[in-house]
Amino acid sequence: MKRVLIIYTGGTIGMTRTENGYAPRAGYFRAALDGISDLHSEEMPAWDFLELSPLLDSSNMTVREWNCIAALIAQKYNDYDGFVVLHGTDTMAYTAAALSYLIQASPKPIVITGSQKSICLHDTDARMNLYNSFLYAADDDSHDVSLVFDGKVILGTRARKERTKSYNAFSSVDYPEIGVIRDGKLIRYLAPKQYMDGAKPTFYDKLEEL
Ligand code: ASP
User: Fold this and answer.
1) Of 9, 12, 89, 91, which one is the catalytic site residue?
2) Quick one: which of 45, 67, 78, 118 could link to 15 by a disulfide (CB 3.0–4.6 Å)?
3) Is 12 a catalytic residue?
4) Are 92 and 59 in contact (CB under 8 A)?
5) Which of 122, 43, 123, 39 is nearest to 86 (CA)?
6) 3-state SS of the chain: helix, strand, coil percent to 5?
7) How far does the centroid of ligand 1 lie from the alpha carbon of residue 40, in Å?
8) What is the pTM of this model?
């Protein structure tokens, strides 16, 4: 069985109601995941969960967090078959691009996702985005950094947030989507890259902090 590491950085996906509006709360999202039976079904990979501190609204992400996420993936790279980074949507495309440069030629998939509505709401897109991300991260032909959202798989360097309310928040810019996930089936539009057995990614130490 494949093993995936979830790295939870914050964002709407794990926010809950507080006196000051919706905000992420430590420990809340991990508990919510236990209630999603789909994520524990047979076709899902086994997963571990890592929560960063503090949890951030992604408008507060800086180069320092990008370096930190990449360093964490480098540190855990040999222990997992794939990585799912949970992130706010506002700067998700920037983080996807940054990670694509910090971690190059990765035979293991690094997926970034989040949601437009919190997991605590009944009409949330969080469950679908999580399920699709796990499915993509567990596929043998998935590699490199990509963003999975609303059933689309987008190359990490090509994603742009174009819609603030619609579940269809992201588009792939000047490049086709890698594929789509519909009803639990991954359909690839582009032939997957081939990596030799035992191929290793190149990790770059850091992007310069301004
Ligand atoms: N402002 C939130 C963030 O980017 C929006 C979201 O998560 O979708 O963290």
Assistant:
1) 12
2) 118
3) yes
4) no
5) 39
6) 25, 30, 45
7) 26
8) 0.96
